[in-house]
Amino acid sequence: MPATSPAYSQDAALPYIGRFAPTPSGYLHFGSLLAALASYLDAHHRQGTWLVRIEDLDLPRNKPGAAEHILATLAAFGMHPQGEVWVQSARHLLYQQQIQALIDQGHAYYCDCSRSDLAPYQGIYPGTCRNRNLPPAKDHAVRIRTDNLADGHYSFIDRLQGHYSQHLPSELGDFVIRRRDGIVAYQLAVVMDDIAQGVTDVVRGADLLDSTPRQLHLYALLGARPPRYLHTPLVVRQQGEKLSKRLGSKPLDPALASVTLYQALAGLYQAPPAELYGAPPAEMLAWGAAHWDPSRLPITREILQDQLPAV
Question: Which of 130, 163, 197, 234 sits 20 to 30 Å CA-CA off 301?
């Protein structure tokens, strides 16, 4: 049967726990700030807890010193995590144990398909290794089965984007939870961490919207209730490329924290008053938390950078 994440109004009495989970592949830029600020404001508007987690499992992509720089930048912008900062690489054994449990339960299996093997299938895994019973090997991926779902549809109500549904077997197929290079996949790690930290609400960019059905499937397999979701529009350049560390987007300057926070509040369509311009970060954040209204955001997955509200 379809699995549906609850609407935001349900279980509103649960203590709110949100998080910002950057990857240390580079320094924070304006797009990162929008994501961090949206999650921060959503948590504080509901008198909840805001956590920070460093998602550093993709070791080859990590930039030395980036994790420390990210935390220092957040602090300079007045955003302080309310609890221990988790680092995913410290939880590697737990992920491996859960992967083995999923294999033992028949929910996952080893796969030795290469990218060239899968190229003809345009991103939809055809089930090549599903019944081959491959043995463990360092260069084998691990995939989660989707062929044995009663319906295959996973749907949820996003607080901004509305209803979203995906039929996993036909639109994606069995998906990877451990890569062939041994790196634990984002989909499993993020679900395990959110469960362990008691996260009730996930606020993140709309580029991760289509990851959510896979995560809902993993929540079901792990016997946990999924969080509520709010996927905010992604800011993209004129040519359609998102602001990102990989493309060299300009790092945030802590010396300009007040001005940049004002621009970020405007970029989240919160319409900060003119008299707030140049105020200290703490005052800016307090106003933002008190007046946070995500329904002001446009219901779209992308916004051109030059079409953000002017300040």
Answer: 197
